[in-house]
Amino acid sequence: MKAALQREYGGPEVLRVEDVPDPEARPGWTTVRLRAAALNWHDVLVRRGQYSSPLPHVPGADGAGIDESTGEEVVVLPSLWWGSDESAPATGWEILGDHRFGTYAERVAVPVECVRPKPAGLSWAQAAALPLVGVTAYRALFSRAGLRQGESLLVLGAGGGVATMAVSLAAAVGATVFVTSSSVDKIDAARDLGAAGGVLYTDDGWPEAAREANQGRGFDVVLDSVGTWAQSLRALRPGGRLVVLGASRSEHEELAVRPYYFAQHTLLGTTMGSPADFAGLLDLLAAYAVPPPVIDSTHPLDDVVEAHRRLEAGAAFGKIILETS
Q: In the predicted model, is pLDDT for residue 146 greater than 90?
């Protein structure tokens, strides 16, 4: 089969489409003949070697295609071996495409529990874009933060896949959503997904500007995928919840302890999600009018290098897709 293989760590140019062996059959697993795969920032970190993926390696966490054992149209949940404890993943948990071949290929092998029927009405590109960002946003907003109808949410970074999905899910259930971005165009695009507005994070006073946009009130929930905790806390109301799921801008943060506990804030860490979270996401999609995942662009598998360059440039709004067959 064809796959985007990397034999070393580095920039986008280390990805080369080559012939690799088909996945081997094994008990408890199935093979999905992929129609599309979606790029995630996580894939960039894999490519650079941050997760010490064994080489040669095929990256990719997200995908949709045909389950070859049943003939069903399916989406792939990239959260492997979460375990029975819903509060946190088990010791053996891993993300598809970290330590075993991922979805930048014509076929991928996954545990049977990690395939679910493709939601009706989604194209192959939209279906491939759903699993990682969908389950991550669902777990962050609902399993962890307990977001409810009528509450307010601030999503940092309007253009990313998790951010666009979070806006869509939260607005669908009746939350008031604002975003931050470096681009007015991306804020306008977030409005099309249900956001009430947004502010530019290029202004040092963006937390206060966000509060002012929200009728002068702090937010019930802030979703932070960039690692700017101290600023995010400034945007929260007393008793609000800060949900952290990334560190794209900062790996370390210093917090003033006394204001934190006097404000009764809650700091919640989260990542990916369990099969139960994925089931909850699919139920939510069936019950509410949620827009499909936003697709920025589609590329043939042979153009994987250009797709990664677009992802790293930060110009995309929504998901970048590889057409694998």
A: yes
Q: Do 259 and 304 sit in the same domain of this protein?
A: no
**Which single residue is written with the structure tokens 């253009």?**
159
Per-residue pLDDT averaged across 110-138, rounded?
Answer: 96
User: In this structure, are residues 107 and 25 in contact, taking their beta carbons and an 8 Å threshold?
Assistant: no
DSSP collapsed to 3 states, 18-73: EECCCCCCCCCEEEEEEEEEECCHHHHHHHHCCCCCCCCECCCCEEEEEECCCCCE
- If asked whether residues 123 and 141 sit together in one domain, one would say no
Output the pLDDT for position 251. Answer: 76
CB count within 10 Å of CB 7 equals 12
Using CA atoms, how far apart are residues 131 and 216, in angstroms rounded to an integer?
35
Q: Check whether residue 83 and residue 15 sit in a common domain.
A: yes
pLDDT at 87: 95
The Cα 308–Cα 306 span in angstroms is 5
Nearest to 153, CA basis, from 171, 133, 172: 171
76: phi then psi, degrees, rounded to nearest 5: -105, 125
When divided into structural domains, the chain yields a total of: 2
Q: pLDDT tens, 273-287?
A: 999 999 999 999 999
Q: Under a CB-based contact definition with an 8 Å cutoff, are residues 242 and 156 in contact?
A: no
pLDDT for 97 equals 97
Backbone angles phi, psi at 128, to 5 degrees: -65, -30
Give the DSSP H or E segment for 154.
strand 152-155
In a domain, 256, yes or no: yes
Nearest to 173 by CA among 280, 79, 296: 280
Q: What is the CATH number for 43?
A: 3.90.180.10
Stated pTM of the model: 0.93
